[in-house]
Amino acid sequence: MIRTAHYVLICFALSACTEPAAPQLKLVEPASGSDNIATEVVIIGTGFYLGVDERYDGASTLRRDFGARLGDAPLTSVAWVDTTHLRATVPAGLPVGLWELVVTSPEQRSVRLVDAFEVRAAATPAPGGGQAARVLIVSAPTALTAGGVGSALIVARVTNATGEGVTGERVAFSTALGTFGATEEVGGGDYRARYTAPAAASDGTTRLLVSDAGPTVIGDDSVTVTLMATCASATAVVSSDAALQAAVAAANSGSTPADLCIPAATTIYLSAPLVLNAAAGVTLRGEAGATLSGGALGGGTFGVTLASAAILVRGIDFVAFTGGALALDGSHDSVEQCRFSGCTPPIAITGDDATIGPGNELTGTSEVGIDVDGQRAAVIGNRFDGFTDGAAVAAGTETAVSFLTVRGNVFLAGARAILLKACTDARLDNNTFVGLAESAVRLEPLATQIRARNNIFAACRGSALVGEPTAFAEPPAHNDFFDVGATCTGCLLGDGNLFVDPAFVAAARDDYRLSRAPVSPCIDAGVGVGDTYLGAAPDLGAYEAE
């Protein structure tokens, strides 16, 4: 099992879909609750795909039966919202302490998140009484089209200490961008108001706030909504395969960049390969709910720039884009199951919250494979081969970045796997590095708060790690160093490291899974980093042994 993650809101899928990976968990909101009342929570993650029951007559039904538990205690009212959100209720009466969350998909694939929720002892009422109560947003969209087009009802619930709805409260909804209509009380402690996206807004986010001024409850809650720009300023608005093909053909013959936009809630199925060879480049974006699927992508000098938020690019072959294959300028964009060869660079990230993976394959000799200059990027579950002129992943080369995750990847050959320049708070976990000519991971002086755990470094001629002790948030721990030029140049190692042959299944055939016969010493040798594992502890490297 390779460690993977998904983030899907809008699907730009240019080839047939494959079986999705297991879900991944990020956090629970709220992250705590009192032991004496039930707590409604939102589980945030990726890859919450519906199941399918197929019948002999060709008909099928969608299954939404997700399960969730804290430890062995099942959560109630587990409900699917979308591919990144579940709702559930934590029952009253759980013992005080930190609890591990386990979510099971309709296909019975499970994932866990350690210390996901804290049960706290209920506060003692003040003399004269008083209630422990709360305000919680229970219904809100994840993305809306701006320009005054997108709108949705936002529902909040006010409950008392026993979880009962409280009526007659002074509930107000507010936001810095966009407008709310009048607040309505709809019964059972629920209050709602219609939110309309701002009339003029580019891609970004806004925070919606609900507050209760009493008389029974004092409290508030908030949620972040992604805003997506309208197609109004696009070079061409395309709502069919023919229109898209014609717009791309016109862009290919032009001398200025083309901005193509798919309107909201529109699905385009490509009937023929889409060839992008415009000398000035092509930008693809979409309003909320836009979908592009099927077909293939050919190219020339410039590839594609993703300008919208929450776009998924899936299953595309990018070949020999000498001016760059894929640029991610929007927020929360994702790339998975794509192949990049001979591109310079394959991927450039300037937007925030990008996810690269799982299942991408990047090969080439360019200086950088993925150039990260956006915040909170995640590079998860990919394969890199080559990049003899530089690093497969470089972060902070132009702009200081923070909160980078590089997890579950395989780095083969090439000069260097990871180069961190101006980078703060990076987590390099469960990667496999094999046959690198220089240092596998190099931390330059502006890199700080770096963690390196559960990795395998094998047959690397240079040092596995290069960096000053001050660059690390904690000494590198629970890694395996085998046949490397040096383990940690300039730095000190932490606990749990191994210095043995990792016993891959068949390294000569590029199979870097861990062997079960004989048993690899890297199985169950890791430390928990919030990812899924099957045994007593996480394995080392990119693949969790089956």
Keywords:
single chain, Immunoglobulin-like, Pectate Lyase C-like, 12-stranded parallel beta sheet, 1 helix, 2% helix, disordered N terminus
Written overview of the protein:
β22, α1 and β23 (258-262) form a beta-alpha-beta unit. Helix content is 2%, strand content 45%. The protein folds into 3 domains: 1-7 and 15-56 and 64-123, Sandwich (Immunoglobulin-like), CATH 2.60.40.10; 133-228, Immunoglobulins (Immunoglobulin-like); 236-514, Pectate Lyase C-like. The chain has a 12-stranded parallel beta sheet with strand order 22-23-26-29-32-35-38-41-44-47-50-52, covered by helices on one side. The chain is built from 1 helix and 54 strands. With 546 residues, the chain is mostly beta strands.
Task: Characterize the largest beta sheet: strand count, sense, and whether it forms a barrel.
Answer: 12 strands, parallel
List low-pLDDT spans: 1-20, 54-60, 123-131
Strand order of the largest sheet: 22-23-26-29-32-35-38-41-44-47-50-52
Mean pLDDT: 81
Report, as a whole number of angstroms, the end-to-end distance: 6 Å
Q: How many domains, in number, for the residues?
A: 3
CATH superfamily of the largest domain: Single-stranded right-handed beta-helix, Pectin lyase-like
Per DSSP E runs of 2 or more residues, the count of β-strands stands at 54
Q: How much beta, percentage-wise?
A: over 45%
At CATH level 2, the architecture of the largest domain is 3 Solenoid
The name of the CATH topology of the largest domain is: Pectate Lyase C-like
Q: Report the top-level CATH class of the largest domain.
A: Mainly Beta
**Count of DSSP-assigned helices:** 1
Spatial extent as radius of gyration: 25 Å
The backbone outline, from C-alpha atoms, is: globular
